[in-house]
Amino acid sequence: MTIAVRKLVVAVEEVRHDGGPPLAAPILKGWVACVLANPFAGRHEPDIAPMMDALKPLGLECSTKLLAAMGGDPGRIEAYGKASLVGAAGELEHGALWHVPGGYAMREMLGQALAIVPSMTKVGPMGASLDVPIHHKDAAYVRSHFDGITVTVADAPRADEIMFVLAMTTGGRPHARVGGLTKEAIAKWDGQR
Predict the structure, then answer these.
(1) What fold is seen in the domain 5-185?
(2) Residues with Cβ < 8 Å from 89, sequence gap 6 or more?
(3) Residue 172 pLDDT > 90, yes or no?
(4) Radius of gyration of the chain (CA)
(5) Hey, which bits of 4-126 come out as E strands?
(6) Is the pTM here over 0.90, yes or no?
């Protein structure tokens, strides 16, 4: 199966504070969006799973580009997420094709990454916003890292395209103070706590 990519877009935010005092070090929040042709647009295909294998190199390429844009050090990445936006001629399940190639690629790139990669998918028009869920890469219950990032690419996805997204951060929410498990208190190393 041929994967026909139209464009890749990478963005990184440098968060210096969020209404409170300046942070000792800015938190980086970044995303990469890959816009590609949806080979199943306009029809129902019963067996779409083989496309997941075809997407694996793209997952690694996107992870590599995002990590490089965020400074290149996998040890600095604390949280991640993924999402898909399917064009109007596709179906929700087409976005789910990103679960394995996107999630496993980030986990491989980061080395230790025990928590499941949070995800969402939706069908939407060109230029729709996509809110990518984010949580801690080693323990999903680290409350300070419950976050998200909004992704928009003005001309994507076209009706016969899919936009796959990966997101990473170098920290949790600035000034997090609502309690719960902290990253310093991760003890079980089971992906949750």
Answers:
(1) 60s Ribosomal Protein L30; Chain: A; (3.30.1330)
(2) 38, 41, 42, 159, 160
(3) yes
(4) 17
(5) 5-15, 27-37, 79-86, 119-123
(6) yes
